[in-house]
Give the backbone structure.
Amino acid sequence: MAGCARGSARAVLACLLAPVLVALLVAPARGRGGREHADWDAAKLLPPLPPREKAALVARFVTNVCDWGALATISTQEGVRGRPFADVLSLSDGPPSKGSGVPYFYLSPLQQSVGNLKENPYATLTMSLAETSFCKKYGFDPQSPLCAHTILSGTVVKVSETEVDIAKNSLFIRHPEMKSWPSSHNWFFAKLNITNIWVLDYFGGPKIVTPEEYYNVTFQ
Amino acid sequence: MAGCARGSARAVLACLLAPVLVALLVAPARGRGGREHADWDAAKLLPPLPPREKAALVARFVTNVCDWGALATISTQEGVRGRPFADVLSLSDGPPSKGSGVPYFYLSPLQQSVGNLKENPYATLTMSLAETSFCKKYGFDPQSPLCAHTILSGTVVKVSETEVDIAKNSLFIRHPEMKSWPSSHNWFFAKLNITNIWVLDYFGGPKIVTPEEYYNVTFQ
């Protein structure tokens, strides 16, 4: 702060405050609920979208930056049995920029969707960049393909013993609150075994990506 | 800026900059894509959540503050016929704080979901406060019931001629980009005729709200 001592009281105060104000402006929103979720929104550190024509890369990007999605299942509930049902689930494929592409879930038999999956494990997961700051930042409507979203169909299965640690690490790093969820809910780790992938990231309709292309993606 | 002129160059610069930095810190994110969508996030003007025990009020609140959701339908697509499908759709029940509760959509026959609905109009829409700044602000995980979300089941139907203007006004005020979507896509206005509502806004499981309770809500 050399050079601040000379001048009027206002000038001295401003000279001392200015670096603080700049620091506040650029600092991520720690402690405001965002950082704990390794939340890029608050930190404004969302990595750039991959080239839109690289649909498999875009699909992996969306899976990694989203920490929740909507899951469609066939309902087993009274009055709506056999009809399509949708619910919100937290998910994670790993730490930011280090995702495996596998959407892991932390589920309880008490959840409506889980009751449905017990009878019929087919499900479709959809995730959208509308969940992040991306679409608002560029002024893309949530239904515009430019506000990229993906649709992953497959089956939801409980992860095997050998995969529990990976699932747990992937989820707890992005969703630390999960560590304190009550054990009476009998939480278990699950994942979506993907059979079909559609990517809507540009005009011209959905792009089909195979699971093989999706998992063969290598990030820089 | 009286009083800034005296002192070292550093002090003068800081004195001039300080008010600017403060202004930047406190100003809402205007012009960054948010305002156009009557977006409360950018303006930080999200109204307070109604009391959580008033489930019908909470349901109406979620419908009004969200401008997109995920819709589950039964797939008619090759390879996944009969399985549950999920997609992202923009929606609106009216202007901010003046919603009717009716989720209106702007759909095209080119959309996968619309192809599904032609064969089977049953659908479930889910919307979450995770789409807004609410959950991050309070540090609620997207799967926590405290990060309130709703599930509305019913049928998606094209709106009647008499309802087109209401649907159009509701949608275009929240989604002005829609006005310029290409007519070659044969856009039409639709809505969800709601038969079942579940509200997850607190511990203890989903609360059931009847369509009657939902539509009878009166806001202050």
Remarks:
- Confidence is low (pLDDT under 50) at residues 25-43 of chain B.
